[in-house]
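Page 47, continued from p. 46.
Same chain as before, 226 aa.
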Amino acid sequence: MYAPPLYRSEDVAQQHDLIEANPFGLITAVVDGRIHGTHIPFVLDRGPEPGDRGRLRAHLAKTNPLVSALAKGDEVMVAFLGPHSYICPDDYATEPHFPTWNYSAVHVYGRPRMLDDDAQRVQLDDLIAAEEARRLPKRPWTLDRAPSELVEQFRAAIVAFELPIAHMDGIFKYGQNKTAEDLDAQIAAFRSHPADHSARMADLLHTHNTAKLDTPTTPRTERPGR
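Result:
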């Protein structure tokens, strides 16, 4: 991953947080000399100790070309994309600026291992439970509520795997190179937008620049039109 030092993250917990908040990843591997990719949801198992990279678990259709790479234990990469947004020069307090894009992403690398039938069932249960937890206080749906014949039919068509995480790259580009007054202006602009993602981007701009924004600055006269 290309990540300038200012935006690069080595914080395993921060990377894990992004994966758990955005578990629909893109897994890629080389199959027969070509790069193949598939978008699938993942379960993250954090390591038992702080700083451990942990593992991912997921499943694929048996007919997916990536299954052959997984079965051989070839190295794969899984990419997770966090919140992202276009940044307009009109949303700065100063001039001049150029349009840019703020975003976060984590790339995970490792060699997969196939899971047996029992572990496959656990993977499905855990994946469903993680997503159902996002819908609380709704009564969680579980596989036990589905007809057993339907469950076995589905399970026969998939293969499950785990990916011990050998390495992770993280980038969190949220205006760290901007001044406090420009960040304040961007945060205010995002909070005024009606789009659902805008409030989240404003929160991220503040979170990633807390020390800078919490430092008192000399009040500045606003330019006309701002």
